[in-house]
Amino acid sequence: MAIITLLTDFGARDGFVGVLKGVILALNPHAQIVDLAHEISPGDIAAGAFVLAASYAYFPPETIHVVVIDPGVGTTRKPLCVRTKTQFFLAPDNGVLQWIYAANPDAVVVELTNAQYFLSPLSNTFHGRDIFAPVAAHLSLGTPQTGLGKPLLEFNRGVLPPLRQQKNMISGVIIYIDRFGNLISNIASQYLQPKNIEKLVLPRHTISRLSCSYQNVENGPMALIGSHGFLEIALNGKKANEVLEYGIGTEIDVCLKE
Amino acid sequence: MAIITLLTDFGARDGFVGVLKGVILALNPHAQIVDLAHEISPGDIAAGAFVLAASYAYFPPETIHVVVIDPGVGTTRKPLCVRTKTQFFLAPDNGVLQWIYAANPDAVVVELTNAQYFLSPLSNTFHGRDIFAPVAAHLSLGTPQTGLGKPLLEFNRGVLPPLRQQKNMISGVIIYIDRFGNLISNIASQYLQPKNIEKLVLPRHTISRLSCSYQNVENGPMALIGSHGFLEIALNGKKANEVLEYGIGTEIDVCLKE
Amino acid sequence: MAIITLLTDFGARDGFVGVLKGVILALNPHAQIVDLAHEISPGDIAAGAFVLAASYAYFPPETIHVVVIDPGVGTTRKPLCVRTKTQFFLAPDNGVLQWIYAANPDAVVVELTNAQYFLSPLSNTFHGRDIFAPVAAHLSLGTPQTGLGKPLLEFNRGVLPPLRQQKNMISGVIIYIDRFGNLISNIASQYLQPKNIEKLVLPRHTISRLSCSYQNVENGPMALIGSHGFLEIALNGKKANEVLEYGIGTEIDVCLKE
């Protein structure tokens, strides 16, 4: 049973997500459709990219991920089908797949040009419905990626947030803030041996060690390895982003012991 | 596999939608349940009606649409099962099906009176759970519409928003505002040949032509045919309803060339 | 077909719910996953407990309910599998199952200790993904409860909100406020024979009788038996919690006729 996930900035009030499902099920009644997330802020490509990066690997092989965060719909930006070793990604060529490309350098990218798999008439404002959803259904029914369009060698690989590794320091930035207000950085756990950490430095706070859980520190900011495998800054029972007044792009320096 | 869609104003915090699904699956474990939208503003019948109108045609024949925007639950308003040529609609008789009636003049309307298909005891405050969900399940299992109650000839057809066609002008109103702040009118694309448009006039703005995409105009309001097939007013990267301060009922005049 | 419901405070923007589904489907592609509710306020155990209590009985036997409102994730609080006569509940031992225990005194509680059913590596911050979701999948595939860990006799039964029954009075409190602003109490319908009610007394209002529907009273607060089977206070077309300024814990006295 083919799994098709949906990741959008469509919210839950306008019926856009329901329409995607209708289009898919009309073509493949046996598709198993899973909502990945739909409350991405309108047009927030970086947030959508991060949510996708944090989620896709938990789905089984052959899963088809449909990503519609698409402020440029109807312009010259291209619709894509990207194949990694195990999964498919359908998305506009706007950088929302940047983490997928980084983790899968051998990904094969095809521009969706074969209009026989699109809805007709094709709107200029809702390619989720008219291109991505029907193409996902056809993929799930066995249409090969090569049949969907033409191979693309030049595409938008996005710009990964800055991560600098020096002798005794790793410097990264806050790249995502979750619903709980946790500040998630781009410093991966592999760089962080708890016993080697001297201190973590934020613009207005210094943290001396890694915590194990969100309730590990009574007051003040704590640092821990979050579920995405990245260093994150949190507050016990409060929203760290609001109380600490840090946001996307805030710099974090991890100082290591000599 | 029968598809049952759910369209409600229940939101995602109280478990109401989950309960609808439990009731359906307890009766028909093989039903395929699809969320159409659940963040309709509480009691906003017009918004629910529009979302349904924009969505239902994308679902395959025999789909059962359950619409629970029902501020009059427990009063004398009747619960209905409406059959069009290809689909079913279960909803209260409060006008939420107005676009369905307009597009399907031969729709057959039945009042749900056969209590053997209801949950018992029947509450006065949650007919979604006690009437619409179990009836949807029974319909999906093959119970014919005629077995659900008695035919109804007088019912609430609703009042479609005003649309006037004059010699060189079409006048409509904003009928829906989506999550992105786009102002959607009731002027359908069939009335709008791009080359025949002289100008579009809003209370405080005049627009000279139709755009092709949401990024087609740098600044200021643009007009385009939206994905629903209606004229809509939008702003590039901003919420048109907030910036332009227009809302439901705002008049739009399309002046045509002689 | 095994039904697995998900009740969380994860919202719909971070992909956490999508990840739970990916983990489940990777283990059991045939699981039928149902969203119970995901917009519980972050860490609001009492609200999650009430939503679960109001929902679970509508699901068929053998349903597996996964409840992840888990502010203490990664601390010493234990992950549990609870079996009632007909259903399973997977949740942290933080009181979120209090209504389940009260309604099912013979529930069998097992601490999840058998790590072969967990994801590996096990994070300290997302046991929904690493423990509850994979255990739910294994349960749905036939793993017996006894294989998941060790029986637990001491666990957090929670504290049910106060309900006092005197000669001519029943006193309870507001325990939940739904999306529509209705104030739901812990006074069950079995205590309330409409003809025996003298009056209902709130801190700043007195109500003389029970209403039948939310539109039964033009102005001012009304009392009615809500869909959960509890006394609730509502306003016609308005949010009672905002207008009346009552909240969780507000006392209600029902005075009975002699």
Explained architecture:
Three copies of one chain form a homotrimer. With 258 residues, the first copy, chain A, is α+β, with helices and mostly antiparallel strands. Chain A has helices at residues 16-27, 45-55, 98-103, 127-140, 240-244; strands at 3-8, 32-37, 64-68, 79-83, 88-92, 108-112, 149-151, 164-165, 169-177, 183-188, 197-202, 205-207, 210-211, 222-225, 230-234, 251-256. In chain A, the strands form two sheets. In chain A, strands 8, 9, 10, 11, 12, 13, 14, 15 and 16 form a nine-stranded mixed beta sheet that branches. In chain A, strands 2-1-3-5-4-6-7 form a seven-stranded mixed beta sheet, with helices on both faces. In chain A, strand 1 (3-8), helix 1 (16-27) and strand 2 (32-37) form a beta-alpha-beta unit. In chain A, helix 1 runs parallel beside helix 4 (127-140). The mean pLDDT of chain A is 95.
